[in-house]
Write a structure and sequence with these properties.
6-stranded mixed beta sheet; 17 helices; alpha/beta; 5-stranded mixed beta sheet; 507 residues
Length: 507
């Protein structure tokens, strides 16, 4: 088999290695593939230098993002007659940009990485650092981080509480490069590699086991939540004639017998402007139990001081008396989906709704009625490590309302769900995810899931809000720990490269 593989052109192998790694993220979570695809890529990178090293890494990463993010283009098929021209940009254009960041890591390790085991560990450091840059530069897009492959592994997931998804990516890549020592022709010391593997695995597994076993006392306040998943396809949501059907579906699901303190509907669930419709508020209030609140996604509008009308992707909270208690406006909007960057030069409409939304003020910790403090996150906002809570105001829980109907039954909603689980681990608080078409669930601060509703199903689930565990090391120190770990891994790489005379192979 290896002989046949050697006859395949390098560029084809790069596409194969990157594509496999990208495709088998969630829902598959084949974390073990990283131990095949990453060494495969590094073998193909070989001794390439300069632009050649950049190009090979870019092609590997481009394939990774094309196969991992293919579902982004699915949103355009909701109205393909209007957005057909954007299909190649969504399917192939976005990966072109995203691949540029890991490509810098490939170029850097060939220029400054040295040889042997030192080179492998420095590659992991460079890769993780460039993933952090990708998550912050411009508006940031930290989707498909390598660390997310490990979300289903309990002990590995807990590393996010220590140094976020970026730290988990560093550990994942540092482990993934080590099998290079067993590639044919490699002169890397296997004994030294095993020692480094143990040096990484023992504290990582130890931390994971320790963090899972330390369980705080249960809260005295028990909060019962009702999650409603109406499973309305996006083309129906956009049909003005279907508004009554959508509304009646939500009511029928919500009025099932049961007692709860919060009724949770997904992003843009209500097809009417709740704050402008007293009749709708009265009908919903009639099905709420005493003291219960409705928390729902809506599109709301409000004029500014000059009288210009602004539209917001919002969450509104309403009580049993039909009174609006407060609102949260989405702050991290989706480029081209919810607003058009450089509006003066790009005169076309956003995909979602055809209007530019106005951004809100940022993460907020809010208190409504007798519910514990909450940080609402609308859809895309949940993907940003360290940007999901208001600084200095840690909430008791995170609420992610989303509408993944744009992406059908693709890998996208599964990836989105896995990402949200890791925010709970990072911040040490449970997360409640309410999705129009799924996947809806409650996850505790360890990332364990309760009360899940599968993708593509209509349903309701009542579940208690798990307790919180505050603070986590990441919640307290932020990215300082991640950058410190990068420095420690770089030092380990330097120490591994001291014996260069006996270990002068690129691999």
């Amino acid at each position: 088999m290896l002989a046949r593989l050697r006859s395949v052109p390098v560029w084809v192998q790069l596409i194969m290695a990157g594509g496999l790694l990208g495709w088998f993220q969630a829902p598959y979570n084949y974390w073990w593939l990283s131990f095949i695809c990453v060494p495969w890529f590094l073998h193909l990178l070989g001794s390439a230098q300069g632009w050649r090293a950049y190009g090979r890494t870019w092609l590997f990463a481009y394939s990774y993002f094309v196969f991992g993010l293919y579902w982004v283009a699915h949103a355009l098929f909701v109205d393909i007659a209007q957005f057909w021209w954007a299909l190649p940009l969504a399917a192939g254009g976005l990966p072109i940009i995203l691949a540029a960041f890991p490509a810098v890591a490939g170029w850097a390790v060939q220029k400054w990485g040295g040889t042997g085991l030192q080179r492998l560990l420095l590659f992991a450091v460079f890769w993780a650092l460039m993933e952090w840059v990708r998550g912050h530069i411009f508006t940031g897009y930290p989707w498909l981080l390598a660390g997310y492959l490990w979300v289903d592994v309990s002990w590995a997931r807990q590393l996010a509480a220590f140094s976020s998804a970026y730290g988990l990516t560093l550990w994942a890549m540092a482990l993934a490069v080590l099998p290079c020592a067993w590639l044919p022709g490699s002169q890397i010391s296997r004994r030294k590699t095993v020692f480094v593997a143990l040096l990484l695995l023992v504290p990582a597994i130890g931390w994971g086991v320790y963090w899972v076993q330390r369980v705080p006392a249960e809260d005295a306040q028990i909060v019962r939540l009702r999650l409603v998943q109406p499973n309305i396809p996006e083309h129906i949501k956009l049909d003005a004639q279907a508004r009554d059907h959508i509304y009646k579906t939500l009511l029928a699901l919500s009025e099932r017998p049961g007692n709860y303190q919060a009724l949770l509907w997904p992003e843009t669930a209500l097809p009417f402007r709740l704050d402008e419709r007293a009749d709708i508020r009265s009908e919903i209030a009639a099905i709420l139990p005493p003291e219960a609140l409705l928390m729902t996604g809506v599109i709301r509008r409000a004029p500014d001081e000059a009288g210009t009308m602004h539209y917001f992707n919002s969450m509104l909270v309403m009580n049993k008396f039909g009174e609006i208690l407060g609102a949260y406006d989405k702050s991290h909007l989706v480029p081209f989906g919810e607003y058009i960057p450089f509006r003066n030069w790009l005169p076309f409409d956003p995909v979602a709704g055809g209007i530019d939304f106005t951004k809100g003020p940022g993460p907020r910790t809010l208190v409504f009625g007798s519910l514990p403090s909450v940080s609402p996150l609308i859809c895309y906002e949940v993907i940003f490590p360290g940007q999901v809570v208001q600084a200095g105001h840690q909430p008791r829980w995170l609420l992610n309302i989303t509408n993944d109907a744009w992406y059908g039954l693709t890998n996208g909603p599964y990836q989105h769900a896995e990402i949200s689980r890791l925010r709970a681990v990072e911040e040490g608080v449970p997360i409640v995810r309410v999705a129009n078409t799924g996947i809806s669930f409650v996850a505790d601060y360890h990332g364990f899931i309760n009360g899940a509703l599968p993708l593509g199903t209509e349903g309701v689930v009542d579940v208690d809000l798990p307790t919180a565990r505050l603070p986590t090391p990441y919640g307290r120190y932020g990215n300082l720990i991640f950058f410190t770990q990068c420095a420690v891994f770089a030092l380990l790489a330097m120490l591994a490269g001291i014996d260069r005379r006996a270990n002068n192979s690129k691999l």
